[in-house]
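Lecture notes, unit on protein representations.

Consider one protein chain, 548 amino acids long.
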Amino acid sequence: MPAFLLALSLFLVAPFAIADASPGDPTFTSPHFFGSGNCSRCHNGLTDNQGRDVSLVRDWSSSMMANSARDPFWKAKVRSEIARNPHLESVINDKCSKCHAPMANYEAKSDGTLPTQKIFGGILEAGHPKHDAAMDGVSCTLCHQIPSSSLLGTLKGMSGNYGINATKTLYGQYGGPGDTPINPQPMRNNVGYTPAYSSHISQSKLCASCHNLKTPFVDETGEILSTTPESEFPEQMPYSEWEHSDYVNQASCQDCHMSRSDGVVIASRPTSITAKRDDFARHDFIGANKLMLSIFNNNKQKLGVLANNFAETIAKTDAMLKSAATLTLYDQPNTPSALDFVLKVTSNTGHKLPSAYPSRRAFLHVVVRDEQGRKVFESGKLRPDGSIVGVASDNRSDRFEPHYDMITLPGQVQVYEAIMGDSNGAVTYTLLRGAKYLKDNRILPAGFDKATAPEDIKVVGPARKDPNFVGGSDNVRYQIAGLPAGRYSVRAKLVYQTLAHGFARDLFSDTVTPEVGDFKAMYDAVPEKATVIASLEFSGMVSSATPQ
């Protein structure tokens, strides 16, 4: 074969060949931060009163926070956004590294090099002076150095606008009033930081620093249209959703997303530390992103992943998903000529479900079979590629599935999701084009009043006027006509996806960006594109095939 044809064939077979990522050095030091490897010397090797390993750095290492800069979906999406608006690369670099590579971003701001810093061809590359800080993700000395401030939990303190104290003080949950005092000397001697108690470290407003995120948006020419933080696009607002729910007085982000243990000696060194602490907040940071955790576990060398305990974190994530909501049979109206039933989805989650990033969705999958076991109706069938039969957005990029109060046809599917619209009112999957939501019927947390919800977290579309779509739950009626008289079995599931098919299809339409190609290969290799949250089975009757 001629050389040029051989080269072409290799390109066509494997056009994306990004080298294995450097994991970075977790024992790095910088002017304001220490890497997690320094913390592990004393804060790994911990057990609770049940003998379980509750090591801080070990638990954290297999979390999304530890791997925020290794996330191949994030890298693919950021690279794609830069390709679509290259003149805004510096804006994108700053906005996206604030929370995914926060220590590198903060140091670049501190030493005045931020304007020259890049994510690609920059901090993600081995040898870059801020590479190690970037690869350590959302690390120990980042979160624990954010001081209590009047800005926490406010717009000015969100979207990555956190502060870092100037005294190298690390705030923790112990040593407060009435608690055993913390001896600061061992940490001062070993790493030069001073531990101190502060209640804000256990409060949701700390998490809002990054997990409430507003972003600028542009028109079709690439001109930025948003003029103030207030006018920016509310890309993800779980803290504000929590504030508008009953959970604001019941549970914090940390209460739900950090497992708890009793009887923990919080440091393995020095051995003079012997006080056992209860209500110890494990640093496992469990969420719902089972898909990405599986991708990390399957591509450790490719992504520069250091953790070895993903199986445990994935199991906890699966358990959290299965506790996020329940699905019950609410009613079976007496409609002789149709199979008629009402499903009730009840949220057990302190923010909208699914939460945050607008690639996520949940949907109802309903299958009806006759007495011979033959399938006579199906709504919400998931294909192996992650698409759903009948869902408009999975067939056309300019459409999306409406919200339903009643479903009568197989092609109607109840999908709980947020769909972005651009400045012209068209569907978009480009984050920089996201100017508003065209649909947001994500399941609301208990106590969420959709009539009084602020603009950034309002319900959008027909769900706003659906009397059965309320804080904490949604009722969906299925009325299936045209069936012969007889008894039917129904199986219903509430299913969750990290990456909706329409969002993935738009991203994967970029066939020239290496990061996109790499992520697609990793995504395609994961057999399970969705997780069942809840399911139920019941039977129903059709007493007459014709209306009475």
